[in-house]
Amino acid sequence: MQTTQHVFFERSEMKDRHLVRKKIREHIADKAKSPILIFPEGTCINNTSIMMFKKGSFEVGGTIYPVAIKYDPRFGDAFWNSTKYSMMTYIFNVMTSWALVCNVWYLPPMVKEEEENAVHFANRVKAVIAARAGMSMLPWDGGLKRKKVKECFKEEQQKKYCQIV
C-alpha cells in the first residue's frame, strides 16, 4: 500500500480530516500525478442502492471522474453480509464462485459549480452514478448498518409516509 500512496485516516479525528484534505489538494495540484480513487460512501453495501456520499471528497476542488460500479450476482455475489457470514465463509464463497461479474461505467467528468456547496455537488454526482447503474439513492450514511438508526431519520420517514397516506 505504501507504493501506491494510500492515505489512511481516522474519520473521527478532526486533525486527520484536515491532513487528508491537505494531501488530496497537494496531489491534485500536481498534474504529473495520477487521479485519486476515492469511494465517497465510505463503506460497501448490497449493490442495490447508493448511500450518502461523504462531503470531504467534494470539498477539495478539482475535477471528479465518476465511475458507476455494479456487480451482477448471477454467478457469484461479491457483497459480504458481515451479519450473516464470517470472513472465512465469505472468502470461501467468493473463491468458489463461478465468476464475479462487474459492470463498470466511466461517466463524463464533473466540476463543482460556482454557487454549489460540497453536499450539493456530492448529491449531483451521486445522482448521475445512481441513474447509470440503475440503483436507488439513500439519504443516510453507510455507517447505519453498524449502528442504531437515529430518531430523526425514523421521524423523517414517518412524516413522509404520513404524507403519502
UniProtKB/TrEMBL annotation:
It comes from Fregata magnificens. InterPro entries: LPCAT1-like, Plipid/glycerol_acylTrfase. GO terms for cellular component: endoplasmic reticulum membrane. It is found in: Endoplasmic reticulum membrane. This is GPAT3 acyltransferase. Pathway: Phospholipid metabolism; CDP-diacylglycerol biosynthesis; CDP-diacylglycerol from sn-glycerol 3-phosphate: step 1/3; Lipid metabolism; Glycerolipid metabolism; triacylglycerol biosynthesis. GO terms for molecular function: glycerol-3-phosphate O-acyltransferase activity. Residues 1-70 form the Phospholipid/glycerol acyltransferase domain. GO terms for biological process: phospholipid biosynthetic process; triglyceride biosynthetic process. It is a multi-pass membrane protein. It holds the Pfam family Acyltransferase. Belongs to the 1-acyl-sn-glycerol-3-phosphate acyltransferase family. Keywords: Acyltransferase, Endoplasmic reticulum, Lipid biosynthesis, Lipid metabolism, Membrane, Phospholipid biosynthesis, Phospholipid metabolism, Transferase, Transmembrane, Transmembrane helix.
